[in-house]
Design goal:
With 299 residues, the protein is an alpha/beta fold. The protein has twelve helices and nine strands. A nine-stranded parallel β-sheet has the order 2-1-9-8-7-6-5-4-3. Helix 2 runs parallel beside helix 3 and helix 11 crosses helix 12. It is globular, with a radius of gyration of 18 Å. The two termini are 34 Å apart. The model has no long low-confidence stretch (mean pLDDT 95). Bound molecules: 3-hydroxy-3-methylglutaryl-coenzyme A and magnesium ion.
Length: 299
C-alpha cells in the first residue's frame, strides 16, 4: 500500500544553491524561501553553517537565517558539519540541524576533510549537544548507492553508517544517492537491510538525484516500502559537483506531479511552486531542468 501523505523535505535553498556558480544575493534567497513556504512546503532546508571557504555560496548564513526563521508553520533545518557549525546555528535560534556523513571513505575525505571513522566520531558529541539543546537532528548519508571514486558501496557499509548515526541520536536519516546511480531494486535492498539492522522505516528519508533519470522510479520503490519523507529541490536546482551530468536533485515539481497523480497528499500547490521555480530560474539566468516546470510553464 502506498502512504496517504508524504512530507517533502525541500532542499533547493541549500543543496540547490550550494552548487550554483552565480552568487545569489541574500534577499533573493530569503524571497525564494518565503515563496516555497507560500507554495505549501513545510520543511525547507535553509542554509549551511559550514566553513565559508568550502561553500562560499552559503557564506551568508548568519544574514539569511534571521530573515526567514519566523515564517509560521515552517521548519527550517540547517546543515552543521561540527561543533562550530552547531554553535553558530544555536546562536541564531535554529531548531533543526542536519549532520552529513558519507557511506564511502573517499567522499568523507573530499567533503569533510576527515576519514569516515573520524567524521562519525566527530559527530557523536555534536549530535549529543544538539539533542541536549532540544533540537531535532537529521543525519544525511551521502553516496549510499555508489561513489564516483570507489564505484559500488557495499550495503553493509551503508547500513553501518546509518546505524551509527541513529545510535548517536539522530531522529531521522536521509539516504543520499549523491551521484544518481541507484535503481529501484537497489533501493529496496537497502531499505530492507536497514529494517533488519533496527532502523525503522519511519526514521528514513530518501534523497535521490535524477542524473540517470531514475529518481522517480526510486521514489516509487521507497513509497511502496512505506517511506513518507522525501527530499527534493524546487526546479531541480543543484547538481553534484562530482557527476558530469548537469542534472542533479530530484525536482520537487516532478515529485509533486507523481504524488498527486497517485492520490498522495503533500500540501503543496503545484502552480505556486512552479511559478517560484520559474522566478528563481530568471534570477539564475537559465531555465529549470525540471520536465514538470517546463511543461506547466509553456502551456
Ligand atoms: P577543516 O578545514 O578540516 O576544518 O574543514 P578545521 O576543523 O581544521 O578548521 C579549520 C578552520 O575552519 C578553523 O579556522 C575553524 O575555526 C574553521 P581558523 O582557526 O583556521 O581560522 N571552521 C569553521 N568556520 C565556520 N564554520 C564552521 C567551521 N568549522 C571549522 N562550521 C569542515 C572541516 C567540516 C569545517 C569543512 O570541510 C566544511 O565546512 N565542509 C563542508 C562541506 C559541505 O558543506 N559540503 C556540502 C554538503 S554535503 C552534501 O551536499 C550532500 C547532501 O546534500 C546529500 C546529497 O546530495 O547526496 C547532504
Ligand atoms: Mg542532493
Amino acid at each position: 500500500d502506498l502512504p496517504a501523505r508524504v512530507r517533502i523535505h525541500e532542499v533547493g535553498a541549500r543543496d540547490g544553491l550550494q552548487n550554483e556558480k552565480t552568487a545569489v544575493p541574500t534577499e533573493v534567497k530569503a524571497e525564494f524561501i518565503r515563496r516555497l513556504a507560500d507554495a505549501g512546503l513545510t520543511t525547507i532546508e535553509a542554509t549551511s553553517f559550514v566553513h565559508p571557504k568550502w561553500v562560499p555560496q552559503l557564506a551568508d548564513a548568519e544574514q539569511l537565517f534571521p530573515l526567514v526563521k519566523d515564517i509560521p508553520g515552517v521548519a527550517l533545518p540547517v546543515l552543521v558539519p561540527n561543533r562550530r557549525g552547531l554553535d553558530r546555528a544555536l546562536a541564531l535560534g535554529a531548531e533543526r540541524v542536519a549532520v552529513f556523513a558519507s557511506a564511502s571513505e573517499s567522499f568523507a575525505r573530499a567533503n569533510l576533510n576527515r576519514s569516515l571513522e573520524e567524521s562519525l566520531g566527530g559527530y557523536e558529541p555534536v549530535v549529543r549537544h544538539a539533542k541536549e539543546s532540544g533540537l531535532q537532528v537529521r543525519g544525511y548519508v551521502s553516496m549510499c548507492f555508489g561513489d564516483p571514486w570507489e564505484g559500488a558501496v557495499p550495503l553493509h557499509q551503508v547500513a553501518a553508517v546509518c546505524a551509527a548515526l541513529k545510535d548517536m541520536g539522530c531522529d531521522e536519516l536521509s539516504l543520499g544517492d549523491t551521484i544518481g546511480v541507484a535503481t529501484p531494486g537497489h533501493v529496496l535492498e537497502l531499505l530492507n537491510l536497514l529494517n533488519e539492522e533496527g532502523v525503522p522505516t519511519n526514521q528514513i528519508g530518501v534523497h535521490f538525484h535524477d542524473t540517470y533519470g531514475q529518481a522517480l522510479a526510486n521514489t516509487y520503490a521507497a513509497l511502496e516500502h512505506g517511506v513518507t519523507t522525501i527530499d527534493a529541490s524546487a526546479g531541480g536546482l543543484g547538481g553534484c559537483p562530482y557527476a558530469k551530468s548537469a542534472t542533479g536533485n530530484l525536482a520537487t515539481e516532478d515529485l509533486v506531479w507523481m504524488l498527486h497523480g497517485l492520490g498522495i497528499e503533500t500540501g503543496v500547490d503545484l502552480g505556486r511552486l512552479t511559478a517560484t521555480s520559474v522566478w528563481m530560474a530568471e534570477q539564475l539566468g537559465r531555465p529549470s531542468p525540471s520536465r514538470t516546470v517546463r511543461a506547466l510553464s509553456h502551456k
